[in-house]
Amino acid sequence: MSDSKCPVPHGGAESGSKCPVMHGGATESNMSVMEWWPKALNLDILHQHDTKTNPLGVAFNYREAVKQLDVAELKKDMHALMTDSKSWWPADWGHYGGLMIRMSWHAAGTYRISDGRGGASTGNQRFAPLNSWPDNVNLDKARRLLWPIKKKYGNKLSWADLITYAGTIAYESMGLKTYGFAFGREDIWHPEKDIYWGSEKEWLAPSGSEGSRYSGERDLENPLASVMMGLIYVNPEGVDGISDPQKTANDIRVTFERMAMNDEETVALTAGGHTVGKCHGNGKAEQLEADPEGAEIEDQGFGWLNKTKRGIGRNTVSSGIEGAWTTNPTEWDNGYFELLLNYDWELKKSPAGATQWEPIDIKEEDKPVDVEDLTTRYNPIMTDADMAMKVDPEYRKISDKFYNDPEYFSEVFARAWFKLTHRDLGPKANYLGPDVPKEDLIWQDPIPAGSTDYDVEAVKAKIVASDLTVSEMVSTAWDSARTFRGSDRRGGANGARIRLAPQKDWEGNEPARLAKVLTVLETIAADSGASIADVIVLAGNVGVEQAAKAAGVDIDVPFSAGRGDATDEMTDVDSFDVLEPLHDGFRNWLKANYTVTAEEMLLDRTQLMGLTAPEMTVLIGGMRVIGTNYGDTKHGVFTDNEGALSNDFFVNLTDMNFAWIPTGRNTYNIQDRDTEEVKWTATRVDLVFGSNSILRSYAEVYAQDDNKVKFVQDFVAAWTKVMNADRFDLVN
């Protein structure tokens, strides 16, 4: 009796062979909320990585699991893997080193210092868009080659650690004395929504295309580091595909600076990365099928397959450039500089049609052999990025130095590789494993151990007896802690760097107010034996407790002693410059008017701090009524009892006796509907908690008469989370 008609209604299905189940949000025909209402505030950035997506469950602790890992056995297995060539994806010259290094490099190389996002610390290369970026072509094969290792060690070894470790072991297996390695990277379980990769509408779009990331002469949009959508670094064929090594050098310098690398590290990484392995372009790129995300189901997550030709071994197509950089591509040596600097080079075309540089009149013995036929030799190649190391005056000086001192080159590269693969792992407190270097490096933001041997209650008593106001104490503690970003685990209250350059002079920290508060708190710290970092946080807690008591709620704010005080010598001023806040919705402050709305910037900051949407909501409401606005402005202070930690912000925000009247680009009057008397003023960040349907649902919870105590309790919990965000010793 069936006519194959869908038995479940979805959009008026009418005739045969329709889907027998209701269509969901993943279908092409289903419009998302943001597509229907593009001006709506998208809170997805705060909702990602829900615990329900983690198949290991909320009780699983990777940092404890990885401590049980047999690293010696793993290293042995990894070394064996490097030369265990598989017929379905044969190793070049019988060694997977080059492929594994490229995989690790492209995982770590997405890191950018401006917002700390990207990098290898989450295993995000397994998911879109990274798993299908043009620059990551065929790295799906590298990850599949690692699967037997992952299968064997299971939950004791995350994909994030394994992907990163593979490159380090590859270098070690080819003769480099590596600097060390740390485990501790925890996997995510679905694609990240918080990373802005650019606004281009197509892969590898040139500079002048729609959504270009460049403006002016060639000013790269922040926070981006790569030059094109879908590239890790720069275009190997030249700027927009047009060869000009000096222009490419300029792009390289900007890109690597935004990855926290100086010129010496940049040359070392470029040369060291190209000392081993090869480029693949011995075929036509148009013969490759879809990337992993677009591939057919029978391809089982493999992409870029060549189903018309052999497409493997010497016939592999990845970048389109074809050839090795050095004579011995499976050995760590100084061959890169020997060929680059001792030969003249000319532009050629690869079999795939890509532009590459090849040497003029090269000796036969200097040519690398074919990856499968060791009796046949081919020209080595260089990309535009390689030629930049020879053409750019500063890069050339460094290249000459490395060429003349191979041991120095190896040392600089080993350290730079360690930095590349560990920068987003955060401070050394997050490092695990037997190969963690003992040396403290300034880019790890070192902090000395703090004392716990002091009387916390006595310190609190001294703080209470001071002339500091609740607003001053809470604002200072907040400013000290708000720099934390979970993306690369930098910033935070530990270290008390708010008293050092550059933070002490940041506009958002209100230097005059900060100096006054620090003068008082530093004296208390010196007298008590506590660190200044602890006293700053403790003063903020005292302020919160006093504000709660003023609202009729007695509560103790949890406190964990043990923060240390960093010194100027431990602080890289240039590196910390990027942490300067340009806005803080929690303190209702914008440094300037921006194209992006204030509420969107609030979401970005909230996500970096590791807060949820409800935590953001309760903190905003509490900070407003306590009176912590920048410059003591009254926007959003919806209360007649400022200084008390009440739920008045939410009560008055949801009161329909008021109307909301725009008075400027980012300001509003809150006035009585009947008398038109202006009761309060507000910003977009204040009113979004009433206009956005999701945020309003949270605001209504805290506005209820029966949730006054819950509001205080939730505020204290969220506050404590912010104060302890960088206390890795409390969770490790």
What does this structure look like?
- By secondary structure, the chain is mainly alpha-helical.
- The chain has helices spanning 33-36, 44-47, 62-65, 71-82, 97-108, 139-153, 159-173, 245-257, 263-273, 335-342, 384-391, 393-404, 406-422, 456-465, 470-481, 511-528, 532-550, 573-577, 598-608, 613-626, 648-653, 684-691, 693-703, 708-723; strands at residues 214-215, 219-220, 278-279, 323-324, 345-349, 355-359, 583-584, 589-590, 658-662, 667-672, 678-683.
- The strands form five sheets. The protein has a three-stranded antiparallel sheet. A two-stranded antiparallel ribbon has the order 1-2. A two-stranded antiparallel ribbon has the order 3-4.
- Helix 15 crosses helix 17 (532-550).
- The model is unreliable at 1-16 (pLDDT under 50).
Radius of gyration: 28 Å
Q: Assign an overall shape.
A: elongated
Percent range of helical residues: 25-40%
* Helix count, DSSP H or I runs of 4 or more residues: 24
Order of strands across the widest beta sheet?
Answer: 9-10-11
Q: Tell me the total number of β-strands.
A: 11
Structural class: mainly alpha
